[in-house]
Design brief:
Chain lengths: 247, 247
DNA sequence: CGTAATGTTGACTTCAGTCAAAGGATGTGG
DNA sequence: CCACATCCTTTGACTGAAGTCAACATTACG
């Protein structure tokens, strides 16, 4: 163990930190972004692979509920998940959408603090939480990776607080569309998929579906966007949309 | 170096993980909660102490601005800081208030993504960011501590998103007051200090000062709280306030 | 196709925002 | 020690952006 630890430590010192892309862990389960070059070399990957299992989710199916015992952590390999919190009377706030390569379930609490549900057909790679946590002790670069992820999620959460606390409906939707387009590296004029429903968009932006719908129509009327169908949009005037997003 | 690394690794395995309270690092700089038992033993503390310097801030003084190069990380030792984001037209969203023991400045970006300003007279302990980051490689338990902090901040951010996106003014203020009282372990009937201005509370809750003021008056009229002066409040009916917070 | 689910539009309401004035606290200098 | 100025907070009257309720349109799907 000590020798291994020592070797590992040396690996870490040599490891370039940026992600190295997709790695195959189990048959149908690629963990894009999770594996960090160097720290999880070919000989060490089996550690992760051995404890991993694949899970498929249909649209609308729940991965876990807020309050469930947090027994597993996951990486998303295909599809899209929404994370949300519910109030007793049914009011809902979606705190984020997860895409392939994203990690979820890390909570320094014994229970999940939000619910996770599939938006489209989705595949996740599941790791038993305790085993995964023990792995962090052995591969500090994996922990460093998670810390980096947590930091960027935190920065995104702060942006979302500004949006929810201070932006108008128009600014919220424009900001959202810009962010989605960015994530797809969409060129101007290209149709960007919008897999979530208007209800999901409303619950993410702190609005009602009616306001979201009206605001879509307004942005379309102003020729800032086009809506080929309800699950795609096109940025027609990226400068105008950026203006509308309000910075 | 290898021997040291190896010893350190063993330390980590033995280290109990919970925080061990306040530790003195430099003359006037206690880093409550930052040092993790075991990983930063007496012989290793000088590593941190050597790079630390103390900085005092008067109320309203800025520690750093959003966009500044992120050269340092900090722990808060006395006082209270607010973190906020600004829009071009002056709209402001406060994303959090920091208390002694809290850590700030960790960003996997080269610049700070928010501004930090003192609410009251405040002392921080400053560490050069690069040096501090190198320390993480040597003391994985310190990194684990930071990951835990990031996780709980993320959970708090999600709660705040629910508040900003879905709660009424009354629910927002009630939630805020409950949280402040909780942080002070205040018994019912005890006066809880409220060091920040109405403007700060408004910018934290996504409201205007007028709405905050009116809502304070309403909660007071309903005998849920009392307001001995503008910088203290008392929870008169904790069940009623909890009800008002809307869960 | 026909039915259900999802999305859009319209009319009206409401909660919180804006504008304005007055009340209180704090501090300074005569 | 008080007069005055400034800042922060509170309260009131009115406005407006987004919510609610309702009807209609469109899409998805068996």
């Amino acid at each position: 163990l000590e020798i291994e630890t020592q070797l590992m430590s040396i690996d870490v010192k040599m490891a370039p930190l940026p992600y190295c892309g997709t790695r195959v862990l189990c048959d149908e389960c690629t963990v894009r972004g999770l594996a960090v070059c160097g720290s999880l070399s070919d000989t060490e990957l089996p550690d992760l692979a051995a404890m991993a299992s694949t899970k498929r989710l249909e649209p609308g199916q729940t991965l876990f509920h807020e309050g469930d015992t947090a027994q597993d952590v996951y990486t998303l390999t295909h599809g899209i998940l929404k994370l949300y919190k519910l109030m007793g009377d049914g009011r809902r706030q979606i705190t984020g959408f997860l895409l392939p390569g994203d990690f979820l379930g890390l909570a320094y609490s014994q229970v999940y603090v939000y619910s996770a549900e599939a938006v489209a057909q989705t595949t996740v790679c599941r790791f038993p939480r305790r085993q995964f946590m023990r792995l962090l002790d052995r591969y500090p670069a994996l922990e460093k990776d998670l810390l980096g992820r947590a930091s960027s999620e935190l920065a995104a959460a702060q942006d979302q607080m500004l949006l929810l606390g201070r932006k108008t409906a128009r600014e919220r939707l424009a900001t959202f569309l810009e962010k989605v387009a960015m994530r797809h590296d969409a060129r101007p004029g290209q149709a960007v998929p919008l897999p979530m429903s208007r209800t999901d968009i409303a619950d993410y932006l702190g609005l009602t579906i009616e306001t979201v719908s009206r605001t879509f129509s307004a942005l379309k009327a102003e020729r800032l966007i086009a809506l080929p169908d309800k699950s795609h949009f096109v940025i027609v005037a990226s400068d105008g949309l950026n203006e509308a997003a309000g910075e």
